[in-house]
Amino acid sequence: MAGKRNSRRSFGRIRKLPSGRFQVRYPGPDGVLRPGDRTFATVTDADRWLNRKRIEIEEGRWIDPAEGQTTVRDWSSRWLAAVSPQLKHKTQATYRSLINSLIVPALGNRELSSLRPITVVEWVGGMKTNGLSASRIRQAYRVLSQIMRAAVDNDMIPQTPCRGVKLPRMPQTEPHILTPLEASRIVRSAAKPHDLLIALLAYAGLRVGEAFALRRVDIDVSGGFVLVDENLAEANGTLVFDTPKSHQKRLLRVGPSLAKKLGRHLETLPGGGDALLFTTPAGKPLRYNQWRKAYFDPAVSAAGLTDVTPHDLRASHGTWVADRYGVMTAAHRLGHSNASVTTRHYARPVAGRDDQVAAAADSWLSGHDPAPGARSGHDDDDDGSAGALVPV
After folding, report:
1. What is the pTM of this model?
2. Fewer CB near the last or first residue (10 Å), C or N of the chain?
3. What is the pLDDT of residues 268-304, one digit of tens each?
4. By the 8 A CB rule, do 239 and 227 touch?
């Protein structure tokens, strides 16, 4: 009977179904016959499909369809378990939260092979409709993109569905760049020893978590050095000591006056070399929100300033150093492996610089050349704290 007869070929088989369409079966690299993923209207179409499948196998591009039947839930769990040892604790917690709250509820029961770019577009649109922030949506998409890229790399699917997806734009926010004098007012307005912590943010460019994690052994008073080799982060309510962001450990030079103040503070600390420089009154590690409310924000208000965050001090430091000593020096002090990160997120034009360039250009037009590197307006706004800006 025609409906049950197989056409013998050099590769694969074609069978006409009672419906009049044609079904194909082909041997994988393991010799097991597998059905095609669709039926065909003509024998010619079926034959072309088999030829393409034969070439995929010969060139090593064939993917077992059974792998693509793995669900997003199962593959996400396996992927996270595999990459977790290389991730920081806070990053692990963030990925797990995004997978459990946004990826699995919407896509978890779907097979990997069933996802298409339109599926991801609809998922992104749903999160936006539900009022999620652009930042949260972009974070979730990046995690899904990593998950699906790993599926491609492991021959689960031929290509990732995370392509050509338009993501919501992040609101453009500029850091509040302070002058060295404004930062100094905050330092002088802060309760001790938190004035030193704030000084390290402003005049050494430390991240808050890096300052929270400083220990007695990290301070070289005589040499004027601070070793930044730890970061204190909070993940799901738990405090975790880890390496600095991007694992960039660094040795920073600080100004003599700040080094002396740190030395006097070290003399008051109990414990040995592992003793934290800054703790709660009970001797516990600091938590960002509590510390900011209790010590930082009151110091900002007492200094007569508003809308200043701890991160603004780090951004201000990057701007001062880049302006005076160059972007590469700023990148080193901020712990960036790539100077483009410094210019993109931290270094900002200093007020008045455009006027100075215009004046210099006018001198050039007149046939005069101002002294190379001549700059004005710096010495008047420096009260000595900016001695921490010594390049390394």
Report:
1. 0.62
2. N
3. 998 888 999 999 999 999 999 999 999 999 999 999 9
4. no
